[in-house]
């Protein structure tokens, strides 16, 4: 019994060795098939790319097609048999192995199959001793048959015809024309790059960067290098073709005007074309629209207003300005006010909207600096502000004297201001002979509350308690209504009246007496002269009567 089971186990072990060799044979054959298939696909893809310089989309398809087919070949011809070799997956049965062995050893097939069938029936038939004896007898007769010899691995040499030709062709190309394989493979692997097909000449862009600020012009400079130089060259920009400007034999240029967005372009001449390029438009931060809200000082009695898109301003001093900017592509706006070195950031109020408030007091230029992530160095816009200062009021006066009463003085005049007058007053001050001055006395004349006024005033010096030797100085003063910088004033010329001292009065009285005496003497002399003249006239008349 033990011998029979041992013979059967030896038989099964020999079948298992045969099955493993069967899969080794499949692996060798599969490797030859796979190598031939993969090399053929590799050569086909390289030759196609070498001749046609495919677009990156086609190259992507070729690369992934090659990977897919190569993977499928390796899986089907190598990996699956390898898994079966390790008894993974669906492996051929002992019966199938017996049939394959029987094809090589004809007298063994029936015995092998009969032994395997009897073994399966051992548990279902009552008389197991007869079955075991039969298995022992049959197993003994085929014990020395070398089952693995049913597979001749050397027969796989005939499959070298699938692997050697593409392998030899690849080696030949690597020796004779290595660039054909290397360059094509490099282009197939780098599927995200565009490559230019080798030609008698090539295009080289001389610009450092293919970048331009949005809405600006951009000059593209091209150099052509090669054994043969074209007479003309062209550029294709978004399905439109334009002739390049030729500067000399191998230099061309083209001007992109008012670039508003990214532009794809390609250079070509005849059948020679460059790879596609893209001119990148750096989004320029610009002011699309803005309002200038003007809040004038209340005292000038001017209604507030809103200006549309007016950057240059002429404003009264003290006006509060609120700028409201609507922008495009701006992440930040800064402003530099007149006579200032510092920049203030505008407050962002919403998408693409910025605001800034200030009370401008000085004339000059102010600048806006707009920036974003693509243009971190701000682009500037400059405007001018002219601040009209609040002028001083003007005042004039005329003096009229009463010849019959020198103590009475009459004044008449006018006063004006650019925005309005507040008060007009008469002011006087007394200076004593010792130099002491009394406080200025202010007498209101008017409260005009208008831009212009006329006034009149009468001064009676006797109403002012002047003592002998006192000096009276007086003038008119007017104030404007400047509520921002404080009220400003202007004065008329000063007038002066001096009251004589006692000595001056006595001296003046003596002078008056002398003058009267001299006048009387003169009058007496004149009267005497006239009497003499009258007497002479009488004498002449008497003489005429006597004749």
Explained architecture:
- The protein has 5 domains: 2-188, no CATH class; 198-282, Immunoglobulin-like (Sandwich); 286-388, Sandwich (Immunoglobulin-like), CATH 2.60.40.10; 394-499, Immunoglobulin-like; 513-547.
- 36% of the residues lie in helices and 32% in strands.
- The chain contains 8 helices and 28 strands.
- Strand 21 (394-402) and strand 22 form a beta hairpin.
- Mean pLDDT is 83; it is low at 1-5.
- The chain is rod-shaped and about 210 Å long.
- The chain is of the alpha+beta class.
- The strands form 6 sheets. Strands 2, 4, 5, 8, 9 and 10 form a 6-stranded mixed sheet that branches. The chain has a 5-stranded antiparallel sheet with strand order 12-11-14-18-17, with no helix packed on it.
Q: Tell me what portion of residues adopts beta-strand conformation.
A: 25-35%
Distance, first to last CA:
227 Å
| Integer tally of domains | 5
Principal-axis shape: rod-shaped
Radius of gyration (Å): 62 Å
Mean pLDDT: 83
Structural class category:
alpha+beta
Q: Roughly what percent helix?
A: 25-40%
DSSP helical segment count = 8
Low-confidence stretches: 1-5
**Sheet having the most strands:** 6 strands, mixed
Number of strands: 28
């Amino acid at each position: 019994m033990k011998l029979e089971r041992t013979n059967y186990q030896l038989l099964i072990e020999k079948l298992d060795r045969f099955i493993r060799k069967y899969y080794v044979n499949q692996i060798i054959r599969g490797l030859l098939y796979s190598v031939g298939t993969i090399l053929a696909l590799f050569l086909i893809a390289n030759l196609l790319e070498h001749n046609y310089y495919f677009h990156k989309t086609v190259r992507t398809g070729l690369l992934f097609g090659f990977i897919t087919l190569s993977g499928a070949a390796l899986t089907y011809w190598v990996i699956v048999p390898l898994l079966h070799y390790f008894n993974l997956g669906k492996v051929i049965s002992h019966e199938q192995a017996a049939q394959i062995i029987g094809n090589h050893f004809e007298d063994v097939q029936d015995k092998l199959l009969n032994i395997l069938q009897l073994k399966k029936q051992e548990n279902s038939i009552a008389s197991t001793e007869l079955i075991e004896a039969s298995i022992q007898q049959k197993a003994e007769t085929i014990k020395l048959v070398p089952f693995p010899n049913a597979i001749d691995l050397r027969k796989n040499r005939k499959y070298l015809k699938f692997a050697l030709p593409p392998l030899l062709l690849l080696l030949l190309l690597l020796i004779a024309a290595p660039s054909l394989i290397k360059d094509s493979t490099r282009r197939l692997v780098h599927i995200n790059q565009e490559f230019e097909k080798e030609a008698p000449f090539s295009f080289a862009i001389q610009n450092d960067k293919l970048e331009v600020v949005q809405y600006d012009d951009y000059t593209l400079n091209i150099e052509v290098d090669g054994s043969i130089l074209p007479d003309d060259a062209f550029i294709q920009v978004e399905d439109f073709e334009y002739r390049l400007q030729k500067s000399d034999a191998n230099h061309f240029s083209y001007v992109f005007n008012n670039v508003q967005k990214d532009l794809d372009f390609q250079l070509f001449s005849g059948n020679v074309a460059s790879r596609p390029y893209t001119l990148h438009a750096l989004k320029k931060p610009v002011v699309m629209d803005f309002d200038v809200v003007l809040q004038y000082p209340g005292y000038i009695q001017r209604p507030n207003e809103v200006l549309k898109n007016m950057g240059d301003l002429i404003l009264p001093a003290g006006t509060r300005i609120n700028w409201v900017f609507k922008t495009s592509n701006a992440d930040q706006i800064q402003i530099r006010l007149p006579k200032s070195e510092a920049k203030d950031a505008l407050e962002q109020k919403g998408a693409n909207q910025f605001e800034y408030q200030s009370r401008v007091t000085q004339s000059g230029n102010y600048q806006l600096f707009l920036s974003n992530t693509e243009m971190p160095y701000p682009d500037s816009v400059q405007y001018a502000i002219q601040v009209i200062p609040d002028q001083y009021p003007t005042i004039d006066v005329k003096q009229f004297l009463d010849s019959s009463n020198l103590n009475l003085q009459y004044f008449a005049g006018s006063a004006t201001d650019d925005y309005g007058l507040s008060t007009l007053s008469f002011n006087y001050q007394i200076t004593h002979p010792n130099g002491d001055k009394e406080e200025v006395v202010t007498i209101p004349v008017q409260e005009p509350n208008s831009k212009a006024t006329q006034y009149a005033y009468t001064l009676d010096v006797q109403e002012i308690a002047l003592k002998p030797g006192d000096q009276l100085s007086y003038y008119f003063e007017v104030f404007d209504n400047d509520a921002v910088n404080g009220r400003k004033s202007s004065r008329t010329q000063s007038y002066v009246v001096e009251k004589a001292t006692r000595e001056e009065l006595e001296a003046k009285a003596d002078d008056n007496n002398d003058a009267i005496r001299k006048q009387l003497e003169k009058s007496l002399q004149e009267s005497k002269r006239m009497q003499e003249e009258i007497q002479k006239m009488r004498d002449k008349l008497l003489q005429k009567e006597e004749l």
